[in-house]
Amino acid sequence: MDTIRPYNFEPLRGTGEVSESESSASEDGDRSLPVPDTERLENTDWCTCGSCVVMPSVAECICCKEVDALSWRLHGVRCATAHDSFQVVCLHYEVLRTAVGAMDVSPGSITEPLTARLLRLTAYRQFTHWTHESLGSGVRVVIPSCVVSAVRNAFPEESGHYVGFRDV
User: What is the pTM of this model?
Assistant: First the structure.
């Protein structure tokens, strides 16, 4: 078991942008997640919430209903993205702006409007914290396909090019 390393996902002082990764990272406590196989590629037959989309890698082909840490939140809700708290915590502009401000230790370094990329990265971070609370340094979780899709739809990249999960 990895040791807990606080402040792992905090950006460096004055950077204003977060790392290249578009997804949050792998959790130590969700060992019960099924190991997806190549049969999950190019389809969403594995999705049980009805909101997942086709993802480019096997690792990203995961449904919110497969994440044990979400099971108590999703009682009676068809998908994490349909949960009232998800809409507020992960997609509401002012909440994300406040979260960016809380991450940035240099007053006045946040420029308006926030970029779609920074909003996506912050939304992924918010989702990870909402789901798993604190993970620690180097602990990464794959964000469910339905959540990635909802965040990308809310804050689309003009080029349409996204960086998926990278297990670094």
Answer: 0.70
